[in-house]
């Protein structure tokens, strides 16, 4: 009787694959302990080596606006000392309606625009919507009489802010 012997043979592909799996598992289990987890690449970009693929880690620099920047939208608007109610009282007490003395059409709304600086001063005053030259001149005169405002704030810092002020004129 002849005995049959079965030999178990591995091909080179199977041997290489087995070695690859064992080396890969050893590397995963060791987990790069104590290794430098960041690498600096081309142009100073920083990459993380912890993940399987390199991913870019951005480095942000805080943007600083120039001192003369004028904001239109801020966290805290500039304010007349005492608030809106005090401003309207100031306007009512100081405006001399030119329509009462001159025979010109003087009813309507004048829109004035100006910048309230980071110091609370009014500058670059101009009329955006006009009724007539006499009313415009009176509007500019009264706004120039205003005391310093409380400056507007952005990120906790006083900044220059553009302010639009409509003033309604009506003869009674």
Detailed description of the structure:
This protein is an alpha+beta fold and 172 residues long. It has two domains: 12-57, no CATH class; 70-169, 2-Layer Sandwich (Fusion Protein Consisting Of Minor Coat Protein, Glycine Rich Linker, Tola, And A His Tag, Chain: A, Domain 2). Helices cover 25% and strands 26% of the residues. The protein is built from three helices and eight strands, in the order αββββαββαββ. The strands form two sheets. Strands 4, 5, 6, 7 and 8 form a five-stranded mixed β-sheet that branches. It is rod-shaped and about 105 Å long. The chain starts with 11 loop residues before the first helix and ends with a strand. Residues 33-38 have low confidence and may be disordered.
- Give a count of the beta strands, DSSP E runs of length 2 or more: 8
Could you say which overall geometry the principal axes of the C-alpha atoms support?
rod-shaped
Q: Give the averaged pLDDT, no decimals.
A: 77
Low-confidence stretches: 33-38
CATH domain topology of the largest domain: Fusion Protein Consisting Of Minor Coat Protein, Glycine Rich Linker, Tola, And A His Tag, Chain: A, Domain 2
Radius of gyration: 37 Å
CATH architecture of the largest domain: 2-Layer Sandwich
- The structure class reads alpha+beta
Number of domains: 2
What's the total helix number?
Answer: 3
From the N-terminal CA to the C-terminal CA, the straight-line distance is 133 Å
Give the proportion of residues in helices: 25-40%
Biggest beta sheet attributes: 5 strands, mixed
The topology string of helices and strands comes to HEEEEHEEHEE
Reading off the top of the CATH hierarchy, the class of the largest domain is best stated as: Alpha Beta
Query: What portion of residues belong to β-strands?
Result: 25-35%
Protein name: TonB family protein
Subcellular location: Cell inner membrane
GO biological process, one term: transmembrane transport
Pfam families: TonB_C
């Amino acid at each position: 009787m002849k005995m049959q012997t079965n030999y178990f043979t591995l091909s080179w592909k199977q041997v290489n694959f087995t070695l690859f799996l064992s080396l890969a598992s050893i590397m995963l289990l060791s987990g790069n302990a104590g290794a430098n987890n960041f690498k600096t690449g081309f142009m100073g970009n920083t990459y993380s080596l912890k993940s399987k693929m390199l991913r870019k880690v951005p480095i942000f620099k805080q943007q600083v606006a120039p001192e003369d920047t004028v904001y239109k939208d801020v966290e805290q608007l500039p304010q007349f000392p005492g608030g809106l109610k005090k401003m309207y009282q100031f306007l009512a007490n100081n405006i001399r309606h030119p329509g009462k003395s001159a025979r010109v059409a003087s009813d309507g709304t004048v829109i004035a625009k100006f910048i309230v600086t980071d110091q609370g001063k009014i500058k670059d005053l101009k009329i955006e919507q006009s009724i007539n030259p006499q009313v415009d001149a009176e509007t500019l005169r009264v706004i120039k009489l205003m005391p310093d405002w409380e400056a507007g704030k952005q990120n906790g810092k006083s900044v220059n802010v553009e302010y639009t002020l409509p003033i309604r004129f009506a003869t009674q």
